[in-house]
Amino acid sequence: MSTLIEFKDVVKEYKSGDNVLRAMDNVSFTIDEGEFVVILGPSGAGKSTLLNLLGGLDSATNGQIIVDGEHVENFDDNELTEYRANNVGFIFQFYNLIPNLTAVENVELMKDIVDVDIDGCAVLKSVGLENHANQFPAQLSGGEQQRVSIARAVAKQPTMLLCDEPTGALDSKTGVLILNLLQEMSNDKNTTVIIVTHNAILAEAADKVIRIKNGQIEDISINVNPKKVEDLDW
């Protein structure tokens, strides 16, 4: 596998008056194309900051963020917008679906963002929701809404999926279903999937585990034989 993402001595500081909070403290790591990566750490460790920097939602104070050979840290606002549109699929904890649009309409919104031919019904079928295409979010369960959000994220064929606690609002059974779907996308479609979570059990299913504490890399480990999500002891 080739290297897709590289963080080199990345620093992110937030200033409030005379106070400086260093949320990322000289962080360095690499992620390969198609890897299923889990980022672990306690609340406030810097996990979401890392994801926001990688997704182009925030800018680094210092260091280099290289994605597919491009230096994201040097992008201007227009380049960042294009980068987010073409390279990144975001999956959040609370779905962020538009309530007055049906499931298929939520997915096909991506046509307004990227120049990709999107068959919303076909994408929904890939996440097992072909029979719910014309239902509104309020008519769907939490797990079904999350699958719509995944379908929307993958519809534009992004280089990577960035997932911020994607199962935090779901029951354990539905959470396993969602995580299994994400793992299959990594294995079958070579999509780079990066999941921020506090659930250490998921580490056993990851190709790579990055542990963060106090804005620094505490440990990086590789699973030679990662387990299937469905086989974990939840």
Overview of the structural elements:
With 234 residues, the chain is α/β, with parallel strands linked by helices. It has one domain: P-loop containing nucleotide triphosphate hydrolases (Rossmann fold). It is built from six helices and ten strands, in the order βββαββαβαααβαβββ. The strands form two sheets. The chain has a six-stranded mixed β-sheet, with helices on both faces. Strands 2-1-4-5 form a four-stranded antiparallel β-sheet, with helices on one face. It is globular, with a radius of gyration of 18 Å. The two termini are 30 Å apart. The relative contact order is 0.19. The model has no long low-confidence stretch (mean pLDDT 92).
Please summarize what this structure is.
The chain is of the alpha/beta class and 234 residues long.
